[in-house]
Amino acid sequence: MPSERLHADDSVLVRWAQDGRSEAFEHLVRRHRVPVYRTALRLTGDTHLADDVAQDAFIAAWESLQLFRADSSFATWLYRIVVNRARNSFRGRRDVPVDDVPLDGFHPGADTEAMAREGSQRVLSAIVELPFEQRAPLVLRLFEELTYEEIAQILNISPDAVRGRLHRARHQLAKTLGGAR
Amino acid sequence: MTPPENPTSLPCGADLDELTVQVVERTPAQDPEHQSGCTHCRAALAELRALWSPVHALADEEVVAPEDLVERVLDQIQELDYTGGRAVIGADDGDTAIAVRVVAVIARKAADSVNGTLLAMCRASADVEVGAVGRSVVVRLELVAALGMHLPSLSAQIQRAVREHVAALTGLSVVAVDVSVVEVAEGINRPPNGY
């Protein structure tokens, strides 16, 4: 197993991976696994689904790595894939409310502690109930702390559109959370 | 006169949306002196912080990715690499596998051999999805061209050179050579290097 202390920039690792060196891609997966999984988890509200989305996102990244251009960071590009995968995971499938997820059925090592907390569940449920076009910028802003410009790039919309969607998401979420207080 | 049902500003004039963004995104106050002394702002901020504290608590929780996520990804990549990372020429007496990076090197050198190409950065991939038994290859090239070159002619020459060299040296079928001229620069046009 390669050392996690490898200090090579993402851009260098991407170049090596594009030349077919899967060990470079392994470093990228290890480096980005937490933000990728966390984003998937906050977007889906379901540990099993988030696990699938994260795995699919990394595989998709590997398959299309030759198409990656350095006009955005690798992280931004990866976020775009995760968001698209999470969006697709809801198509043709009934959304699983977070409250319906059995607490004893989580994947080992997953975010079980957080999910077990009532407050977290309530917030996650409220977030998952948001329309995806509002949910995605909210998750990227609040949980990944990305800038409006980065979110705009990931969602392929303007920064003003990001502001508008965030405004609507905050409004909707405040209504839900306020009603539960 | 009754106040509006959903006021967008406080009696002190502070914008409620701005206060909300400040609390939700945990950004610094735009007018800290005013906020610290204003009863309206302090009350609104306290209400907003109470409302959004569960969201902040969730944001502050540590998320741990499943332990075996990396291994599962790598296992799947290895499987893909077996078929997708190389082109395969099938024959009765055995298959010949050629890694796409080998194709990339050949294509890069072929492009470099064309007069007017200053720098070729090549990415190649075996077109396993549409190719016949994995022997089809798509090549994409990005290049810096010498200033003054007729770019469509240069692109056509590069496409021809790449097709010929890859086909001659590997036996693979080059189904497409996409050329992107990303920049032009002053440079000495070199004669073909006889590659």
Describe the structure.
The complex is a heterodimer of chains A (181) and B (195). With 181 residues, chain A is an all-alpha fold. Chain A has nine helices and no strands. Chain A has helices spanning 10-18, 22-44, 47-63, 74-90, 112-116, 118-129, 132-142, 148-155, 159-180. In chain A, α2 packs across α4 (74-90). Chain A starts with 9 loop residues before the first helix and ends with a helix. Chain B has 195 residues and is an alpha+beta fold. In chain B, the strands form two sheets. Chain B has a three-stranded mixed beta sheet with strand order 3-4-5, with helices on one face. In chain B, strands 1-2 form a two-stranded antiparallel sheet. In chain B, α1 packs parallel to α3 (39-60). Chain B is elongated, with a radius of gyration of 31 Å. The A-B interface holds A 18-20, 22, 25-26, 29-30, 33-34, 36-38, 41, 51, 54-55, 58-59, 62-63, 66, 107-111, 113-114, 119-120, 122-124, 141-143, 167, 170, 173-174, 177-178, 181 and B 17, 20-21, 24-25, 50-52, 54-55, 57-59, 61-70, 72-74, 76-78, 80-81, 84-85, 99-101, 104, 123-125, 140.
* Oligomer classification: heterodimer
Can you tell me the CATH class of the largest domain in chain B?
A: Alpha Beta
Please, how many domains of chain B? 2
What class do helices, strands and sheet pairing of chain A give? mainly alpha
Give the amount of beta strand of chain B, in percent: 15-25%
Tally the helices of chain B: what do you get? 6
Q: What is the C-alpha radius of gyration of chain B, as a whole number of Å?
A: 31 Å
Characteristic key phrases:
heterodimer; A: 181 residues; mainly alpha; Rna Polymerase Sigma Factor, Chain: A; 9 helices; globular; B: 195 residues; alpha+beta; Alpha-Beta Plaits; 2 domains; 3-stranded mixed beta sheet; 6 helices; 22% strand; disordered C terminus
